[in-house]
Amino acid sequence: MGSNSEALLGDEQRRLVEEEEDAGGQKPVSYSREFGIESKKLWKIAGPAILTAVFQYSLGAITQTFAGQIGELDLAAFSVENSVVAGLAFGVMLGMGSALETLCGQAFGAGRIRMLGIYMQRSWIILLTTATILLPIYIFAPPILHFFGQTTRISKAAGKFALWMIPQLYAYALNFPIQKFLQAQRKLSVMTWVSGVVLVLHVFFSWLFIFKLHYGLIGAAITLNVSWWLVVIGQLLYIFITKSDGAWSGFSWLAFQDLFGFVKLSLASAVMLCLEFWYLMIILVIVGRLPNPLVPVDAISICMNIQGWLVMINIGFNAAASVRVSNELGAGNARIAKISVVVVTLTSLLIGIFFMVVVLAAKDYFPYLFTNSEAVAKETTKLAYLLAFTVVLNSVQPVLSGVAIGAGWQSLVAYINIGCYYIVGLPAGLLLGFTAHFGVMGVWGGMTGGIFLQTIILIVITALTNWQKEAGQAESRIKQWGGVVADD
Predict the structure, then answer these.
(1) Contact 88, 276 (CB under 8 A)
(2) How many other CB atoms are there within 10 angstroms of residue 370's CB atom?
(3) C-alpha span between 300 and 279 (Å, rounded)
(4) pLDDT tens across 389-409, in order?
(5) Are 345 and 396 spatial neighbours (Cβ–Cβ below 8 Å)?
């Protein structure tokens, strides 16, 4: 029923475009109708995507909340491992997996369904290999963290926790290709149900292992690893049992063909997203070099936690933008792809403004959800004003990144990220934080300037894009990556 209504909406939207073109653009009412149709299609994707992202992010966020009740060192250890070590791996895995958003989305839009399963298997091979290459970061986390400025005490505690979190690394390697595979087909409700059930189990077992059985951080690691693997297993069972409407036809030797070309595309996607994830990770590392870093590290980690929850909403819109743009470009509907960009950006921005108001209203209260330290709570409240501005900024930036992935602009955005983040934002954060002595506010504020600059550039690029040309490039990309072969 859902696919039939989606098809009807698509037919209606295309009919409106044709009517408008025939009338020479003299039907302003069609714009509002198109906006409404696109909004319905957007929320069918964004709604489940937001819930899935929130549920999966909550696995780590809830564990961090439990860790914060154990003690300041435990909170710092979990935060550093989760943000730096696991955050680095998360960025690499998500980035390399995002190549599937372009390929699967455009192939699905063009009706090349059978290639989606092959793409996913190729991505599994590449990501599992990458996970093994990343193992030394987990094994040698203490000296690496200490080298980048963390105190010996925090580095040792975070390094011990990192060893326990190695199974999560391999869960990432399998999970992200699965999600892009299902996302391209708009089967997001499957991911939502699996993640929701796992989250309920995770809350109970976190309480059991961390508090009731007094396993501390080891208990946190056990529950977090098991929960991520349950997410992977649940989604795989759905794919293997249902065959995903023909997108999954079993394991195939075709997965090993043209791996080198697939690696290049995956690396371009990884560089683009990793530069964003590492940028946020670097903030926490730099703050660790401030005098008496324990309170600032805990305070900014709480803000990052709150921001992470809200970014999950934006990631839902990121997914919706990527799916809508890639599907319509793959189908050759340049006009509708452009409308999709406008609708998803405006919708996400309005939601960002709403949550900015919520953060400011709750600034004196939310820190106590994460800590029982008065000093940490006071520092967190001071940072809430900067957090509120970041919330609005992050309501637009991830959406534009989703548009870039859907259109296949990963390499271009990677260069933009290098310039904005590491040539402008990072030096500005260091100058304000250390030279100007603004501390954690200066570090975060300066680096937020880099995100602001990147967002402005992406807005300009998106506004000037020739979407008809992008549709033609999508057709060429599908042929290059085997879409024609799949139907033979």
Answers:
(1) no
(2) 25
(3) 14
(4) 888 888 888 788 777 777 777
(5) yes
Question: Residue 419 corresponds to which amino acid?
Answer: G
Contact 403, 321 (CB under 8 A): yes
CA distance 373 to 381: 12
Question: Quick one: how many helices (H) and strands (E) in the chain?
Answer: 21, 0
Q: Is pLDDT above 80 for 25?
A: no
pLDDT tens digits, 281-316: 787 778 877 777 778 888 888 888 788 777 778 778
Of the two residues 454 and 8, the one the predictor is more confident about is 454
Residue type, 401: S
* φ/ψ bin of 291: left (φ > 0), alpha (ψ from -120 to 50), beta (otherwise): beta
Q: How far apart are CA 232 and CA 252, in angstroms?
A: 20
| Complete DSSP assignment for 360-391 | HHTTTTGGGGT---HHHHHHHHHHHHHHHHHH
- Going by C-alpha positions, the residue among 159, 102, 93 that lies closest to residue 129 is 93
Sign (positive or negative) of CA dihedral 143, 148, 151, 153: negative
User: With b meaning 16 or more CB within 10 Å and e meaning fewer, what string describes 94-125?
Assistant: bbbbbbbbbbbbbbbbbebbbbbbbbbbbbbb
DSSP-assigned states of every residue in 173-211: HHHHHHHHHHHHTT-HHHHHHHHHHHHHHHHHHHIIIII
